[in-house]
UniProtKB/TrEMBL annotation:
Pfam families: SNARE, Syntaxin. Residues 207-269 form the T-SNARE coiled-coil homology domain. Keywords: Acetylation, Coiled coil, Membrane, Protein transport, Transmembrane, Transmembrane helix, Transport. The keyword Transport applies. This is t-SNARE coiled-coil homology domain-containing protein. It comes from Cinchona calisaya. It comes from the Eukaryota. The chain crosses the membrane at residues 278-298.
Amino acid sequence: MNDLMTKSFLSYVDLKKQALKDIDEEEAGPDIEMGQLDPSDEKNLSKFFEQVGAIKADMEEITNLLLDLKDLNNNTKSIHSAKILRGIRDRINSNMITVLRKAKTIKVRLELLDKSNLDNRGVSDVFKEGSPVDRTRVSVTNGLRMKLRDLMNEFQGLREMIATDHKEGLKRRYYSATGEEPSEEVIEKMISGNGNERIFEGKADLVMENQERHDAVKEIQKSLTELHQVFLDMALMIDTQGDQMNDIEQNVANAKAYISGGTEDLNQAKKMKKRSTLACWIGVVLLVFIFVCLMAILF
């Protein structure tokens, strides 16, 4: 139990440090940029980072499953037994089911995190929109989505690699069976699962092997398509929120510009006032001098 509590605390500390590091120091405010939060901020963010930690744990599991899927795909290149291929296909399907379940869980957790961030702004003026705590929450949440978008691209790369490997494998097996290079039309028919019996007529083992490969590719492509949509839904949410963050930053920048401009105008006005005062005094002195000269001449 103590180990679990220690691990949980260290996870919170690490997440907080990373969040503070990710936020621009000028925008974050003195407490955030120094890495020092008052007790109310700490309490407010502790639950938030606990939720973030759960999402990151799921992301790590998905990453590990992705590596396993890549290894399984590489293993299929050197295997020609339909039975062994069937076993690998089952493992791939099992991994994809787990990945899909984890991805959907992350999607729900992110939506809850967004709602929590929005609700938190109404708890107190200290946590209002644009406050250091609010910017920490939004920045970390958006950071998770950007990492998920990178993970989505990794799975998209796997999807393309599987399709390419399957196509190249069919070309090699066709050449081995016929001694001829297959045309694109023939390859497309083989990819669709049509014509394998005729092409490999009399070679039942090759027919079974190709059928297993075809079924495996078809199932994983279907799962990857569904997974891509789940990731896409999560990744697209960053665009709208990213625009909102940019608007906040632009407003801050504009406010700084207005303040800077106002300060310059005040300084200019002070200089003009000094010049006007000096000119008035010079005018008075000249008038007095002229008056004295006239009195001397007349009297």
